Amino acid sequence: MDVNDKITAHILRELSTNGRLTNVELADRVGLSASACLRRVQELERTGVITGYCARLSPAAMGRGFVAYIAVGLSSHNKESMEFFEKAIISAPQVVECHNITGNAEYLLRVEAADLAAYKKFHTDFLGALPNVVSINTSVVMDSPKCDPN
Asked: What letter does residue 145 receive in the DSSP assignment?
């Protein structure tokens, strides 16, 4: 299925904005019959274009109002060091995203904590205590005027 097709692209935009739309609502918004719309959505799911549906949670409402992105540099760049770091990060509930990146750091983390004190504890007691972590550069999120979780 061509994801650049005008109607298919419209379906994807609508579902990425509100994955709870009924098929009838979606069909009406994109100008298709309900059956034609359902066939397209099912094909998008079958081919892996749509991989799932999720709820967007408010970090503040979840008691995690402090959000930061952290660039982490490692002193060793071998596979063993990276696997150790990744395993440790997966176990940290404060880390909601972890990306292996290019540039001056090896990883970019999205961290959510209750407040600055909770973040400092994570920074010092967890992240700073990991072997091979040589640099930690934190950027605190002040506002998110556009946030697309996809």
From this structure: S
Torsion of CA 13, 15, 17, 22, to 10 degrees: 130
**Which tens digits make up the pLDDT trace of 101-150?**
999 999 999 999 999 999 999 999 999 999 999 999 999 999 888 776 55
Q: Which domains, from first to last, does the chain contain?
A: 6-46 (1.10.10.10), 66-140 (3.30.70.920)
- Cβ-based neighbours of 52, under 8 Å, separated by 6 or more: none
> In angstroms, what CA-CA distances link 19 with 50, 54, 123?
10, 7, 35
> Residue 61 corresponds to which tokens in the numbers above?
């409402």
pTM beyond 0.70: yes
Ranges of H-type helices in the chain:
6-17, 23-30, 34-46, 79-90, 116-121
Query: In angstroms, what CA-CA distances link 27 with 9, 13, 19, 20, 50?
Result: 13, 13, 13, 13, 17
Mean of the per-residue pLDDT values of the chain = 93
108's CB contacts (< 8 A; 6+ apart) are 69, 70, 71, 72, 97, 98, 99, 101
